[in-house]
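Morning run. Coffee first, then this:
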Amino acid sequence: MFFCLLCHGLTHPKQDLCHSCRQDLPWNQHHCERCGEPWPTPFQGLCQPCVSEEPYFDQCFAPFRYGFPIDQLILQGKGGKRAELLFALGRLLADALLQHRIPLPDAIIPVPLHPHKQQKRGYNQAGVLAQVVGRTLAVPVRHDLLLKIREPGDQKSLSRGGRQHNIQRAFRVQRSPLKTCTPPLRHIVLLDDVITTGSTINQLAKQLRSSGVERVDGWALARAAKQIYNQPSSPL
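And here it is:
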């Protein structure tokens, strides 16, 4: 007997949510085709920031908007109150990737925490999600190719450019193990629980590209939306 994570009603075996609760989730239906930022109305094309300054990543995919109840499940999972929720969230992400036929990479790299923060928490929520997704999709997960070497500080009040500058030296690509991968890792996915502005994914993609990786995508469970939306650009 299985119970829905949200309403606690009965579900089918191997399903974490009942059909009704799954339908009510904040699905990211309308979004920029490049960065995945949610948009309130249907459109096709790129948001203005992606047109104004082309990102270093190729594409971001996040099946949900960062809103209730996904935001609460993520917070409880990574906050340690109910860490087991991360396994259910990982299965949700893997299912969405399969349903949307998202191209699979040569490897998945979870966005790392600073070692001190990970030691205090006991785990990296992105790493747990990556392990579930990687196992489901039969894609290897690499924890040894990126390091977070310093905390960039609070970024909530910073502009897009300010965030990029603030995190420039926060991460380090481990180039020696990256270059010795056999076969070479030409397509890498950076996986995180939430993409807020895309600045972290973009900076890491820039560093990985400079290290010889040909394609870098970003996957996350949820994508945050801006309070003031930028006018989308029509497809070329």
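Residues 65 and 163 are 21 Å apart (CA to CA). Good start to the day.
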